[in-house]
Amino acid sequence: TADDDAEDEAPAGGATLWTAIDEACARLRPLHWEVAFPEVFVERGGFDLVVGNPPWIQLVWNEQQLLAEFERRLALDRASATDAARSRSGLAARSGFTREYVREAGQNQGLQAFFASPSNYPSLVGLKVNLYKCFLVRALEKSSHAGVIGMLHQDGMFDEPRGGPLREIVYPRLRWIFRFKNEFQLFADVHNLCPYVVTIHGARRAPVRFGCIANLYHPETIDQSLAHDGAGAVPGIKSDAGRFETRGHRARTIYVGDRELSLFATLFDRPGTTALRTRLPGIHSVEALTALGKIGAHPTRLSDLGDAVYGTDMWKETDAQKDGTIARRTATPRLPGDLVLAGPHFFVANPLSKSPRNPCRHNKDYDTVDLEACANDYLPASNYVPACDRQTYIRRMPVFGSRPVAEYFRHVHREMLATTNERTLIPALIPPGVAHVHSVASLAFSSRVELATWSAFVSSIVIDFVVRSRGSGHLHPPEMRQLPRATGTGSGALAARALRLNCLTTHYADLWHEVWPQVASAPGWSLSDPRLSPWPAPDTRWHRHAPLRNAFERRMALVEIDALAALELGLTIDELCTIYRTQFPVLREYEKTTHFDKNGRIAFTTNRGLSGVGLDRKDFELWQACLSAGKKPPKDLDTMGLEPPFEVRDREEDMRAAYAFFAGRLG
């Protein structure tokens, strides 16, 4: 009508709402599926086939990138976000800058609001907005009852802690998931460590059942696995030659149903998580799934200790610097209370692995600590120091049992996980006084015996395998509570090895004096070898040679911990060796190249975490050639006090011997 037309006319002063909407539609070009394809939805109820490679784009406000478009020097100089932000006021005077800035910010905020709206994407509420998730949700909505959907996308939705609602709608329709790593650069513009998946979905069905193949590097492995007859050993992640494995095997195909999802919920999620909302771990083979089943059935968890365990991430680096709690400065502390620990400081059951150089700019600026040479009261350097007076510093600490948490001996582990490195779970023990930044997580225990037992147990490759299977890049204290807890006949032997591996200085003497008399009667070495130091008597006070210092005996103690953990969890020795062979390719590679001398020191290794330890390859091979020819090494060759012969140990053989020894001694 004429009146209606009048209402739509723009007032003389400017554009109407409708004009703004028309402009937005012309720019954004929205698509309404049911309007664009009415015959598909009216006649078939949706699409029969949906195939896509949706964009892997996380919607975040990137001011730095926008500013660099106006000032190219920011990109060329690789300016930090802070430096780029400082240039904002200067750029504001340029023509068109303010309008473009406001338009980009408004569009970004509008997109985030749209995708985060419960009315638009209810299953994505609380998640970081990544467009591939939106595409997958739309594909599920727009397919017919019998439709098939094939998508190639990122892996994050299957391990995000808050991704339960999305997984709840995905699992009932999932048929296959193939989980890839980009080591062969099949996607040249994607980082080699970036995982991705191919998922196939069909009609919703109950009970849930879908196939899964993980640790894929090439699609040919899928075809080979589905056609395989099941004969022979299951290939690991890497071949014996150190190359990423592409051979298929029938046991590589895992079929996941309600029972398996319930197992994953028990192992990897908070108590009360339903099967349909649980995270999906990357399981390498049927044998690995069987092992996880046994671990999941273990009757005790760390959470059983309740309030007798307290976890914290302590100082958050940015906040603690802003409020003056700590300051960034590399220095060597006089007392444990001056030490602020970071992840590179420690490794598995070794609290004194590395010490930072000065200046320390990145994680390569660390030196390996020589445990045989360091002083009895040694403390490593630290990149942070307390910045306030002692009373204020202690008052700001988290409290456990009415005492500052730093008054306890504690378990620590690296909060950030690397699932493709030598080890994923990196735990150690630290003495009272020591603090840490939030890249480290810690647990304080009311019982020191429980602390020592737990520390050894989680130092095993068995528990590492559980954590690695989660596929997550982080491990916070609440998630540690879900892990199994050792309470069997091998608990004392575990605790004894934790003490001998961790109590390297006088700062651990109190822990040793309280716990060692209670666990010293547990079985000692499973191997007879002159490179292994005598097992201390129950009344032994802490002294320099009570802990393990040479590399050979420290390795042997960790091998024995692996065997003890397997026995605790009811795993067979073949299952333990399968876990080692298929899940820890980097550790296997290092084991095959590490040579020990007559006294248990490392003569040569390719272990990148032991930079500066042993001879370099050229000198070692020269010495080996001289030994083979019955000659002495050249006079100009620095032999570093090493004594031949040199030996490479077989870890599987040592684990089998230790497993048989403890099975016989502990029943």
Notes on the protein architecture:
- The protein has 26 helices and 20 strands.
- With 667 residues, it is α+β, with helices and mostly antiparallel strands.
- It has a 6-stranded mixed β-sheet with strand order 1-2-4-3-5-6.
- A hairpin with a 2-residue loop joins strand 13 (399-400) and strand 14 (403-404).
- Helix 20 runs antiparallel to helix 22 (551-568).
- The chain starts with a helix and ends with a helix.
- The model is unreliable at 1-8 and 10-14 (pLDDT under 50).
Largest sheet descriptor: 6 strands, mixed
Query: How does the overall form come out from the CA principal axes?
Result: globular
- SS element count, helices: 26
Structural class assignment:
alpha+beta
The unreliable regions are 1-8, 10-14
Radius of gyration: 29 Å
Strands, count = 20
Give the rounded overall mean pLDDT: 91
Approximate helicity band: 25-40%
Strand content: 5-15%
Question: How many angstroms does the end-to-end distance come to?
Answer: 93 Å
The strands making up the biggest β-sheet line up spatially as 1-2-4-3-5-6
